[in-house]
Amino acid sequence: MRIIQLNETSRKNILADLLKRDPNNYEAYTERVTALVEEVKRRGDEALFSFTQQFDGVKLTKDTVRVTKQEIQEALSSIDQELLAVMRRSMENIRAYHEKQKQYSWFDSQPDGTILGQKVTALESVGVYVPGGKAAYPSSVLMNIIPAKVAGVKRICMVTPPSKDGSVNPVTLAAAYLAGATEVYKVGGAQAVAALAFGTESIPRVNKIVGPGNIYVALAKKAVYGHVSIDSIAGPSEITVLADETARPKFVAADLLSQAEHDELASAILVTTSPKLAQEVSEETEKFLQTLSRREIIRKSLENYGYILVVDSMEEAIETVSQIAPEHLEIVTKNPFEVMTKVRNAGAMFLGEYSSEPLGDYFAGPNHVLPTNGTAKFFSPLSVDDYIKKSSIIYYSREALAAASSDIVKFAESEQLTAHANSIRVRFQGGDA
User: Fold this and answer.
1) What CA–CA distance (Å, rounded) separates 307 from 305?
2) Residues 238, 267: contact at Cβ < 8 Å?
3) Alpha-carbon separation of residue 328 from 161, 255, 314, 361 (angstroms)
4) What φ, ψ does residue 416 adopt, rounded to 5°?
5) pLDDT at residue 24 in the model
6) Can you give the pLDDT at residue 28?
7) Minimal CA–CA distance to 217: which of 250, 193, 242?
8) Which of 248, 256, 296, 335 could form a disulfide with 268 if both were Cys (CB 3.0 to 4.6 A apart)?
9) pLDDT level of residue 431 (50, 70, 90 thresholds)
10) Cα–Cα distance between 323 and 295 in angstroms, integer?
């Protein structure tokens, strides 16, 4: 990995380089995706099935698009039972963590006759996109569905691309069943997002769409936003490790490579105060690359967006990390809890040398759907909050309104909204009760 002594110029260049990975920059695909979405909106199943045959090589009908109970049972019986047990243990951790995020309705009554409050309601329906085809991502299934179940969503509709034979990966199906999906459909890509957003003859529309996908899925989610809600427009995976001289080079190198193997656009960055650690980590990555199965993808990722940044002080390291605002941040220092309090921006923070990033991907409990491309500066991890909505509650007695009426009228008239003012004034004219 390249080693850079960080200064203000190199920091700006690196941050600009990382932003090239933002899905919002892929304008060349936008027109194509928008046209596809409009076709599904206009033609429903006809377009959905046509695009599925074109892109996935699978011919679907209204009778075969939805996964059957028999297919789910076959999936459950066909996969490794030990893996099923692992998924159940992971689910317990995910559910327990997200249960602590639940919000409740509240009401505040005052002696002057006012009652104010907030009513929390789960969304009625959610669509979960899960990447598919040859690969299986059961962890993504659990992370997207379990918070929805905790929030109280009644209808959870999962879509995932079919394999060439028209089936869905059995591990993905098993995870969907365990997590509590109410429906699973064998469609993927931008056409699946459009079907969830607008509905077709076979797939009723949903209120919100969540889940990761490729650039076409990301841009489709962007295109349908406003017709439905979405979680985010996710970019490629990324990890930043903040380390000092106490970190073990082999551990740091292994963790950097764990994200670089996702794809060639993934980012892996070490920020360290130790030139010695920088050199040793670079050497360890080369050793690991001799044995790892996805070494070609990793090499491309490191060539494109892999950096080892050497800084003069821990304060500079923390500031650099906060500007990167990474999806995953590992803090491997002699005092990780103290350092954590000073970092302003990160999707998830992993503290200490035994809290490696894959722990969060699969098992610990916090959600692994995280903000990318610097959006941790203003976005949060997927949570129960993403599956609820809130309504304000307002009650005033006649006496309470009378006490506030002149203030409200004054405010309304200052904006020249005389009907607003009249709505208050009319309640206290003549003999009106």
Assistant:
1) 7
2) yes
3) 27, 11, 19, 10
4) 60, 35
5) 66
6) 76
7) 193
8) 256
9) low
10) 29
**DSSP one-letter string for 70-110:** HHHHHHHHHS-HHHHHHHHHHHHHHHHHHHTT----EEEE-
Tokens of residue 351, six digits:
């503290």
Rounded CA-CA distance 323/96 in Å is: 32
Catalytic residue IDs: 327-328
Distance of CA 191 to the CA centre of its chain: 20
Helix (H) or strand (E) holding 399: helix 398-414
Length of the chain: 433
d(CA 241, CA 347): 13
Give the tens place of pLDDT for each residue, 321-373: 999 999 999 999 999 999 999 999 999 999 999 999 999 999 999 999 999 98
Q: Within 13 Å of residue 121, how many CA atoms lie on the same side as its CB? A: 10
pLDDT confidence bin for 18, thresholds 50/70/90: confident
Phi, psi of 345 (to 5 degrees): -135, 120
Q: Evaluate whether 357 touches 255 at the Cβ level (below 8 Å).
A: yes
Q: Taking a C-beta distance cutoff of 8 angstroms, is the pair 261, 294 a contact?
A: yes
Lookup: tokens for 417: 């909204």
For the chain, give the longest Cα–Cα distance: 90
- 165 C-beta neighbours (distance < 10 Å), count: 7
Write out the two tokens for 337.
Answer: 């809890």
Query: Residue 378's pLDDT band (boundaries 50, 70, 90)?
Result: very high
Query: For residue range 312-322, what is the model confidence (pLDDT) as tens digits?
Result: 999 999 999 99
Distances (CA, A) of 274 to 231, 251, 270, 280, 351: 38, 15, 11, 10, 18
Strand partners, 208: 126, 229
Whole-angstrom distance, CA of residue 154 vs CA of residue 388: 12
Q: Residues 328, 350: contact at Cβ < 8 Å?
A: yes
> Three-class SS of residue 240?
strand
State mean pLDDT over 403-426: 96
Paired sense of beta strands 306-310 and 3-5, if any: parallel
What is the pLDDT, as a whole number, of residue 84? 95
